[in-house]
Amino acid sequence: MSINRKIFSSLRWRISFAYLILIGLGFIVTNISILKIFENRQLYEKQERFRAYAVQVAQVIAKDYASSDADIKANVIFTIEEMGNDIMYREGGQPTRILVLDKNGIVDFDSYNDLSEHGFLRRNLRNEYPIIDELLQGKNIDPTPLFIGNGFTKQKWVLYSYAPIAYQNQEIIGAVILSTSLSDIGEILEAMRSMLFRSSLIIIIVVIIVSFGISAYITRPIKSLTDVIRKMSQGHFGQRVKVRGGGEFRELGQAFNIMSEKLENLDRARNEFVSNASHELKTPLSAIKVLAESLIHMGGDVPDIYIEFLNDINKEIDRLNAIITDLLSLVQMDDNASLDQKEPVNLSELVDRTVRSLRVLAKKKDITLDTMIEPEVITMGDASKLQQAISNLVDNAIKYTPEGGRVMVDVYTGDDEAIVKVSDTGIGIPAEDIPHIFDRFFRVDKARSRDTGGTGLGLSITHKIILMHDGNIRVDSKEGRGSTFFVHLPLNSVEN
Question: Which of 107, 190, 346, 398 has the smallest count of CB within 10 Å of its CB?
Fold first, then answer.
């Protein structure tokens, strides 16, 4: 879920999605417009053709229909059947029905010759359709598509065309009605709809591919900048962005490189200061420690309070020496952000050895120290530094776990990675402090940390060591319930 959220929230995906939305909407609007225009055009052309057919039928049958001779008048049925077949042939096999009405609106002839009770013969359409009145008055009526039956398909639509029958003195003696299905237009539209859908789908796929390519090209400088910033956030200040192209991205890259250079100079100056200060402090501290120890072990009658004060001085000197040693260690690791030489390290043996060395400390506090170690878990790196990192984690777990508590150390493999898990039932870490626990000199509980003799640099050193090994470290913690640290390191397969 988090991976999907990260992907969909990326600038590259947003640009591609925006392209896709715009193109998709454009295609939808375009396709609807094309189909509507085509439908209207096809309907208009068919209306005009059937208007002409109706007029033609009316003209052809006018003489016979006006005849008082019943035999001659009967020829009308043969004429409209023949003309209906002719129209059907012209329209690609689309059946056409022809009705002939007298001047009262009663159907005299039906090209289908439907004599059933549901047929039109002898029905008075004037009563059913008011438009017949206008037709019999000689008015020009446009062909009209009408919906019949149930449903919404084009096959249910029928086109009606009208023409009055006039003879000699232009007296209206009847009317002709032609009806035909509009299913042919529906079929054409369906075929067009299918063609447009397929072509749109192909174009959209091409657009997706092209948009991803364009977005990748656009966001490449941003991704490069992000990668460099990520490395800098891990303490690698010597990073630079490759400045390509022109415009805003070039200016951004140049400005970033200037900032990076200044940060690198500041970091170098800081490291030099810490290193020089540490070396300068160690000398007088060593001298003070020697003098304090000499006074402590001096024979003779020395007041007890002197001994107490000197012991306190000796402890503080030891704490200062530990801080200075840790600072020097951090400075050395800052100067060497990566390991020059790596060798296979058996984490299983290393963790087991580290835990055994800390069992005495755990026993003093009546803390249960257990392990669950998968055999032969191998990584690449510096064994001494990794032992220092693991030792810091286990030592912290013991220090911040109340008497009678439990510390558990696990070593196992995941997906191409080695995992060391250190969990405890200690005081836990407040949620607001978790983002800062790897900061230098940061203490969750300053008073308690001083009591335990910590320097505030142990987790910073651990974090730095893990980064040097191309790994990462994270923590899950509940205040008052304990903490669990996870160390992830690249797994190295070695035949044993």
Answer: 190
Instruction: Tokens 């170098």: give the residue.
Output: 268
- What is the CATH class of 343-490? alpha beta
pTM: 0.44
The per-residue pLDDT for range 437-484, each reduced to its tens digit, is 887 666 666 544 445 555 567 788 888 888 888 889 999 998 888 999
Cβ count within 10 A of residue 326: 21
| Token output for 57 | 């039928």
Which homologous superfamily does the CATH classification assign to the domain defined by 2-190? PAS domain (3.30.450.20)
CATH 3.40.50.720 describes domain 248-335: no
- Between strands 368-373 and 343-346, the pairing is unpaired
- Backbone φ and ψ for 338, nearest 5 degrees, come out as -130, 160
pLDDT in tens, 248-278: 666 766 777 777 777 776 666 566 656 655 6
Same fold, 2-190 and 343-490: no
Tell me the pairing of strands 482-490 and 343-346: unpaired
Low-confidence ranges of the chain (pLDDT < 70): 1-12, 15-16, 147-156, 169, 218-223, 225, 231-239, 241-250, 252-253, 265-285, 287, 291, 295-296, 298-310, 312, 314-316, 318-340, 440-456, 493-496
**CB within 8 Å of 338: residues ≥ 6 apart:** 468
Q: Is the dihedral of CA 70, 73, 79, 81 positive or negative?
A: negative
- Indicate left, alpha or beta for 480 from its phi (over 0: left) and psi (-120 to 50: alpha): left
Q: Which value, in Å, is the radius of gyration of the alpha carbons in the chain?
A: 47
Domain boundaries, the chain: 2-190, 248-335, 343-490
